[in-house]
Amino acid sequence: MFSIGQLSKQTGVKVPTIRYYEQVGLLVSAGRTEGNQRRYDKDGLERLGFIRHARDLGFSIEAITALIDLQQHPDRSCQQATEIAQHQLTDVREKLLRLKALETELVRIADGCDGEGNSDNCYVLASLADHQHCRGEH
Amino acid sequence: MFSIGQLSKQTGVKVPTIRYYEQVGLLVSAGRTEGNQRRYDKDGLERLGFIRHARDLGFSIEAITALIDLQQHPDRSCQQATEIAQHQLTDVREKLLRLKALETELVRIADGCDGEGNSDNCYVLASLADHQHCRGEH
DNA sequence: CTTGAAGCTCTAGTCACTAGAGGTTGTAGA
DNA sequence: TCTACAACCTCTAGTGACTAGAGCTTCAAG
């Protein structure tokens, strides 16, 4: 049996975050000692590991809730889990595209200036003021 | 002179967002009609355009406040503006790296499953449960 | 002069935590 | 067995950048 602090150390999830996960229903309410402190078993450890991993991969709390739900109903099709993962992948790819465009634009802006003028003729400020300067869309 | 709605249409920034920008000090308080409605001139339009563009590039409100501050003090060095932009670029590049790693991992997870099993032997769920499956770090 | 779209302020909600106050419990050492 | 104190508890509020809604007022066209 682990205390919340031990669970925290083993998973790398902060103590208040674990309590938060319980509050929003991601983690099932833990058992308590007589003095009302949470105690976890191996099962709780694994569940939190799952959540941690999924959060690291950018899944929303909502998506993780759905995944855990699927886990607990082995009769349901695995297809739904795959769909959630595919959706997350699409999401990540969209963000990647957007960030790549931002990078291009920022390189143009940030490297276009030698930093030696004053802000009256600053290339950075001028670029931000005038969208026309941009090559791409955003 | 524009109303807040006209300003919104011209810049693509939503009306409540314009009010929010004023509230947090990003936009100087607009002049008002006798009936207390905001009125903007060309200057306000340009300032909002600047903010919009910078937000689109992912600059924080704080960073934009600093940039506007620099704009209003033409005696100050342009170097600070360049530094802010460089910082933003570094930030974007970090996010890009992270997202690329996520993409790789998600491709492995989401495409590794044919979606035809049940959640008992689902590759997606197994991968999320066990960090060992991962090739990279995250 | 009427009507209704657009404006106003203020409060609260979003997501996923994080911080802090103020009190209680568990456990190691004396 | 006692004591000290780290770790725990609950509750509220704050973060960033908005967004939504209630309830009211003003503007401008017909």
General description of the model:
Helix content of chain A is 60%, strand content 3%. The first copy, chain A, is mainly α and 138 residues long. The first copy, chain A, has 2 domains: 4-76, Orthogonal Bundle (Multidrug-efflux Transporter Regulator, Chain: A, Domain 2), CATH 1.10.1660; 80-133. In chain A, a hairpin with a 5-residue loop joins β1 and β2 (38-39). The longest helix of chain A has 33 residues, at 79-111. Chains A and B meet through α3, α4, α5 and α6 of A and α3, α4, α5 and α6 of B. Chain B binds a DNA duplex (30 and 30 nucleotides) through residues 3-5, 14-17, 19-20, 24, 33-38, 55, 60-62.
Task: Provide the β-strand percentage band of chain A.
Answer: under 5%
| CATH class category label of the largest domain in chain A | Mainly Alpha
Query: Structural class of the helix and strand makeup of chain A?
Result: mainly alpha
Helix content of chain A: 55-70%
Give the strand order of the largest sheet of chain A, numbering strands 1, 2, ... along the chain. 1-2
Please tell me what the overall shape of chain A is. elongated
Q: Most extensive interface: pair and counts?
A: A-B, 56 and 56 residues
Write down the secondary-structure element order of chain A: HHEEHHHH
Mean pLDDT of chain A: 88
Main beta-sheet annotation of chain A: 2 strands, antiparallel
> How many structural domains in the coordinates of chain A?
2
The end-to-end span of chain A amounts to 52 Å
Task: Summarize this structure as a short list of keywords or feature phrases.
homodimer; mainly alpha; Multidrug-efflux Transporter Regulator, Chain: A, Domain 2; 6 helices; DNA-binding
